[in-house]
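All the exercises in this workshop are built on plain-text protein records. A learned vocabulary of local backbone shapes supplies the integers on the structure line. Once this layout is familiar, the rest of the handout is easier to follow. An example says more than a description, so a record of this kind follows:
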Amino acid sequence: MNQLLKRLFRKTRRDVSPPIRVRDFPQRYHELFLSHAGKDKVEGTGMVSQLCRFATLNSQPFRDWVERMRLEWEAHRKKWELAYICQALHERGMLAAGKRGLGFAVGAEKLPAFMASLGCQITATDLPAEDERKQPWADSGQWVGNLEALNADCLCPVDEFRRRVEYRPVDMNRIPADLRGYDFAWSTCSFEHCGDLELGLQFLERQMECLKPGGVAVHTTEFNLSSNDETVSQGSCVIYRLRDIEDICYRLTAQGHQVAPIDLDPGSEELDLFVDPPPYYQSAKEPYGRIKHLRLSLIGYASTSIGLIIRKAA
């Protein structure tokens, strides 16, 4: 996604670090948020809807997921997203033999092959080849558009992969009616690319129709740490505010679904406070390694990832 961001946000100033103000944002629906008692848990376990933060990424459970996917651990929010999705699904019994999973906008990510290696039956989807919107990702190798490329690192034995994984071209704004009966669904920072704020939220509602009663959806997206008022509201990439997240969580619960409580703690480690300016991927000193990319500067806003966990009404 980084090539796309460089194209979209060339006007982002490199000499000004956007503020992180999320602790000051008012909460309109207090029942949606994690209670103080719920915060007494081992970091990296007991996944709820939450912000990316260094302590979680640095926890042993998250490090284990990164290692199992044969990735290099680094202080990058994409590694947090992949581990977050795995941990959330694992805790809910979804990463098991025979479970059916549906991935949206999978790009070249390793989750389809990794989940198949655990015995899951996976439908991996992404934009059709003829859709011009795919081009920025294709140019940077983040859209592959075929089945075999999703197992390029052989995370799953080839014969098992071919039995357990199928690839479908799918526009997230037009989910085919036959994609039904799944145990779980996921996407990694994808629904912010649906065209505007509301289209992404409508995707979250529609994809719940793909799940069995009691099925689980885990999605990550861009979150505005600087403002709960101003944001990027339309275009190729939007940034969701807390008020938008509250609205969709309220809508989903009104439809009978269960949304895991929101943990808005952004963390207080050095890397939680650093906002990476363009061209991103700045160097960092040990022990954090080469990358420090948990927050990034997007046209005057500090943005990070937020994960949402939704269980379909029984």
